[in-house]
Amino acid sequence: MNILVISNLYPPLGIGGYEERCLHTVNALRERGHTVNVLTSNHKLTDSSPKNENGVYRELQIHGFYGHPWLPIHKLYKLEKKNQKILKRHLRELSPDVVHVWNMGGISKSLLLTLESTDIPLVYDISDHWIARSLIADVWLSWWNEPGSIFRKVLRGIAKTIGLKSLISKQVPTNSVSDLRFDNIYFCSAFMRNLTVDKGYPVAHADVIYCGVESELFKKKKTYPPVERFIWVGRLAEDKDPLTTIRGVIKARNELGKSLTLDIYGRGSKEYVDLLKGEIDSYNASDYIHLKSATHTEMRALYADYDAYIFSSNWGEPFALTPLEAMSAQVPVIMCPDGGDAELLEDGLNALEFQAGNPESLSNAIKRLVQLKGHGQSIAEYAYNDVMNKYTVDIMTAKIESYLQSAIVDDA
Asked: For the chain, which terminus, N or C, has the lower number of CB atoms within 10 Å?
């Protein structure tokens, strides 16, 4: 297959798991003999950025997201028109058999209308809320279609009357997001699919392809001593809720009378990091709770140094990778069934469950793990086998490859 991937961000200039998974999939598809090109944004692109990347084109412009400015409609039109020209040039020059759309947060959604109007099969990979929560708010398309202010209505009326809208639409689509069909689409979890259906989008037919991890790259835990050292990994932000983990560990430490420790790996805004530091200091816990950071590559060797991993996300997580990473390292996992991760969690088998946002519930799960015979080894081994049978990159890629091939055949 000749595949064109479109994503708002792409490593090494990314910020999260969605684009990391995109990278893994691109590399795995290439290893399977497919030609894969990536069209992404110029976000964070500098003179010192990687040059001569193999089939990666960092040309699209971001609007509003990741610190980029929100533009008035006349300036946004120029940005939209530029992105349209870039897309059409790559479609013409690369002649893909299929276009594989990933995260479009901050990227012109008018591109999707253009793509759906071509004869090229289009497949969507949905691993966050960019359709369910923000598609309707796309600034360009909503300006033309949502009610808006009286001033906006007057301008739209004038544009339509004098034929300006028709002229603009030939360069940049102005029709509604409700015109998108999503004929070929899969989600990272049934939770994300159902949430998107509930928002009124025609995606009930979508498949579910769970995320995968490169489990073979993680250092494995060899021994299971009494549980004392806990690890938390993720973006330092309210939705990931490290505060609940801090409070739960402190409560369990006090009630058990054991020297439990917690290392929190992640990065976040200065304001939120200061909030966490203040919380730790308020409990006089700085001797046993530490904020740290490490690269994704470094984390692969770090999980196994700990006795348990805690996942505390509390926002409707599509399907997190970090629990799978900890399971790949054969580390016992304590997690809440947030969003799509409820589809991973089997309490008492591959992890121990606690209620999201509830430090007392987390404390009880910690005490449960501490008191387990074997210190969680059987849970870790069950979880590792679970990952190897269901959640590897190879398994995920094979399913995505099959889905892309089917889209091409069905469109022929």
From this structure: C
Q: Are residues 197 and 230 in the same domain?
A: no
Separation of alpha carbons 28 and 354, rounded Å: 35
**Separation of alpha carbons 73 and 243, rounded Å:** 40
Question: What is the Cα Rg of the chain in Å?
Answer: 23
Q: Are 38 and 5 in contact (CB under 8 A)?
A: yes
Is cis: bond before 12, omega within 30 of 0?
Answer: yes
User: How many whole angstroms separate alpha carbon 209 and alpha carbon 127?
Assistant: 10
Question: Do 27 and 168 share a domain, yes or no?
Answer: yes
pLDDT, tens digit, 9 for 90 and up, residues 221-235: 999 999 999 999 999
What is the extent of the structural domain holding 357?
215-390
Q: Which residue has 């770090």 as its token pair?
A: 302
Instruction: Using alpha carbons, list the distances in angstroms from residue 313 to 240, 248, 326, 338.
Output: 4, 14, 15, 6
Based on the fold, state whether residues 123 and 231 are members of the same structural domain: no
Asked if 165 and 222 sit in the same domain, the reply is: no
- CATH for 385: 3.40.50.2000
Total structural domains in the chain?
Answer: 2
Residue 193, both tokens? 């699919």
Closest CA to 307 of 330, 335, 280, 336: 330
Distance CA 92, CA 59 (A): 16
8-25 burial code (b ≥16 CB/10 A, e <16): bbbbebbeebbbbbbbbb
- Pairwise CA distance, residues 114 & 170, whole Å: 10
pLDDT digits (tens, 9 = 90+) for 347-386: 999 999 999 999 999 999 999 999 999 999 999 999 999 9
Tell me the CA distances in angstroms from 309 to 115, 280, 334, one per residue in order.
42, 19, 6
Q: Are residues 40 and 105 in the same domain?
A: yes
For residue 2, which phi and psi values (nearest 5 degrees)?
Answer: -105, 110
- Whether 235 and 257 share a structural domain: yes
